[in-house]
Design a protein that fits this description.
The chain has 4 helices and no strands. The chain is globular. It is 88% helix and 0% strand.
Length: 124
Amino acid sequence: MRRQPWRMAFRYAAEGVVYALRTQVNMRIHAVVALLVIVVGLTLRISRLDWLFVCMAIAIVMVAELINTAVEAAVDLISPDIHPLAKAAKDTAAGAVLLAAVFAVIIGIFVFYRPLLTLMSQLL
């Protein structure tokens, strides 16, 4: 087997992200929400520490969704028929995405609650 140039690893990884965005509705939802959160963060001028938490939350959700997509594809390839272990693998991977999303919401509450409250009080 011939070794591929290191740039090909980045290309294949990018193809994986594009595949997930193209085929997975939830990945597109996560991407849109991430962009909205970034716009709100820029608008509210959150601190560098808050940006760290926001970026970490976004990354964890996206990584979990990519892993979920990989698990689903592998399970569908290996076990096209309904099987309890296939269901367990898919449900567990989906559970990881759910936990990551809940974590992201909690981070969002901690980061954006006060700045949004301040903005609303200034507008009223």
